[in-house]
C-alpha cells in the first residue's frame, strides 16, 4: 500500500470521530528560546562531550553575514529540543530509491551482529520479498534481526508475509495495531502512526529518509541530468545483494549528487509505469548512529513488545568523518523536537529557504514563518508535487498557494513523477533529510525521524539536489494561480476541512 492510500484510509476511519479533542502544536518563539539558550551548544563525539573551546572551534567557520550563525543556531535548537549535536560522522546523500535500496541491501548483507529496521511500509511485492529473504538469511547466519512496521502502512499486506519472517527467526513488531483486540499495554491509539524509515546495522551504519520498502521506490528517477548520473559521488561500489529490482530497473542504477549540475537533458521513460518516485535518504557512519539505535530501542520498548534479544547494539563509537549532525526523533504527544528545530531554522534564516516536500499542509505558525521570511527578503522556494498518490493532501496543500505567492514565496511543482522527498536546506548551511512532511499529521500524530546536518559542504550537495528538482519542475505564478478553474478551488476548500487529520 502506498503512503497516500494508507493516509486516505486513516482519514476515512476518523471521519466523524469527534470524541477526541484536537491537540495543538506549541508556540515556537525564537526570542524566548534565545533567552534560555547556552552560549555554546553541547557537541558529543566518539570520546564523549567536547570541551566548550573545541566546540566553538568546530562551529566557528564564518560564512557571509547573510547566512545563519551555526553556533547560535545549534544553541537555539538544543535549547528547544534538548538534543545535542554529534560530531565525527560521515553522511552520504542518497538521491533516489535505487541508490538507497542498493546501499541498504549491501549494509544488511555485511551485518555481523544485529539489524534494527523500522519502516512505515513493507510491501509484499518483488522488492519486499527480496528484503524479507535477505533479513531471514542474516537471521539464520546468527545476526539478530528486529523489524518495526506500521499497522496502517502495512494494512494491505497479508499476515502470512510477516509470519514467514517470524518463522525465519526475525522479530517483527507491528506498531499500534488497528484491531483493538491486538492492542498491547499502551492502549489503542489508532490515530498515532509510525512514519519513520530507519535502518541501523551493527550500531555502526544508519539510514534515514523517506524511502519505504516497496516496488514504488525501486524504479530509477528518470529525469536526472546525464552528467549527474555518470558522476555520482555516493556509491560504495559492488553489486547489490538484491540483484535486479522491480519494474525492470536495476537497483543501484542511480548515482549520487556530484559537485556540479552536469549536462544532458531529462528524458522521460517510455512507459509511465516505469517512472520512479522522487525521494531522498541519507547513509550515516559514526557516533550519530548510536542516537538512531537508541530511538529504535525506545520505540520497541514503548510498544510493550517482547524483550529485544541480546546483541551488541552499542559498540564503541568511532570517528568516521567530519560532519556534525543532530538526530531528532519525534513521538505522538511528545516534545515536538523536529517541529521546533525546523521552525527555528526558518525563523532565523537570512538568505534562503529551499524545501522539497511531498505532503504540504502547513499549520498556521509554519505558514506565517515562510511568509515572514519571504517578506524580509529571504529567497523562499518550495518544490511540491504536481501529481500525488493522496488527493486530499494534494488539494489541501494547494489551498495555501495564494497566501504564499502573494508574500513572494516561489512555488514549483515537480512534473510527471510522484514526489515523496522531505528535505530542506536553509542558508546553504543547515540541512535536514527525514520522514517528516510539512503537515499537522507529521508533527502531532506520527512518530518521525529527521537528520540535521550542519555546514556548507553537505549544504552544497543539498542545493545541487534542489536545483535538479527545479530543472524538471514548473513554476506556479501568481497570475496563473489566480486564473485556476472554480472546480479546482472547490476541491481545495473541501480538502481543507480535513487538513488536521491528513
How are the secondary structure elements laid out?
Blueprint (H helix, E strand, L loop, with lengths): L2 H11 L16 H7 L6 E3 L2 E2 L2 H8 L10 H12 L3 E10 L2 H13 L4 E6 L6 H15 L3 E7 L8 H9 L3 E5 L17 E2 L2 E5 L3 E5 L16 H5 L50 E5 L2 H15 L20 E8 L6 H12 L3 E6 L2 E2 L2 H12 L3 E7 L5 H8 L2 H7 L2 E5 L7 E5 L3 E5 L3 E2 H6 E9 L1 H16 L1 E4 L1 H5 L3 H11 L6
Helix pairs in contact: 2-4, 4-10, 12-17
Please give the number of β-strands: 20
Pairing-aware structural class of the strands and helices? alpha/beta
Low-confidence stretches: 15-20, 227-236, 245-270
Rg over CA atoms, rounded to whole Å, is 21 Å
Structural account:
By secondary structure, this protein is α/β, with parallel strands linked by helices. It has two domains: 26-87 and 325-496, Endonuclease, Chain A, CATH 3.30.870.10; 92-237 and 248-302, Endonuclease, Chain A (2-Layer Sandwich). Helix content is 34%, strand content 21%. The strands form two sheets. It has an 18-stranded mixed beta sheet that branches. Strands 13-18 form a two-stranded parallel ribbon. Helix 6 (126-140) links the parallel strand 4 (114-119) and strand 5. The relative contact order is 0.17. The model is unreliable at 15-20, 227-236 and 245-270 (pLDDT under 50).
